[in-house]
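Q: My labmate handed me this sequence with no annotations at all. I'd like to see what the chain might look like in three dimensions before we decide whether it's worth expressing. Could you predict it?
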Amino acid sequence: MIVVLHNIRSCYNVGAILRTCEGFGVEKVILSGYTPRVGDKNLLPHLREKLDHEIHKTALGAEEMLDIYACGDIFSELKKLHEQGWQIVGLENNIDKKLYQLGSDELKSVLGDKVVLVLGEEVCGIDNSLYDIIDLFVEIPMCGKKESFNVSVAAGIAMYGIMTS
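A: Here is what I predict for the chain of 165 residues:
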């Protein structure tokens, strides 16, 4: 599995997702859009140090154990991965596209062996411009009154759900 963090705003969410990725043995993590990056050389040293500290606070060293790649053109990167046989899967809810529920037999029948899981911005989700490159969308069945989980929690649920399908 490869995980894409596109336009994630919170350093703490990035760190928590990185820690979860390491725990699940994710092959690679791709950071794109305005997602905070560890060791971002484009930032002034004091800002880089602040972001690194915030990411480390929840990643707890996982940021040093993973293959993390910062990408400037995520659409082209996803297209390249798709051409290499990777299935692009978006984690979403409340969209007009077909959603497969995690844990469903229907998802098991369409899910490939090589998955790129795309996670989007905390409030608005995956940028609509990426929808056409995404092969299928998965959602987490919700039982309570809230419509979604925090992106870092949802990422862990989705990784587990996909890996066990």
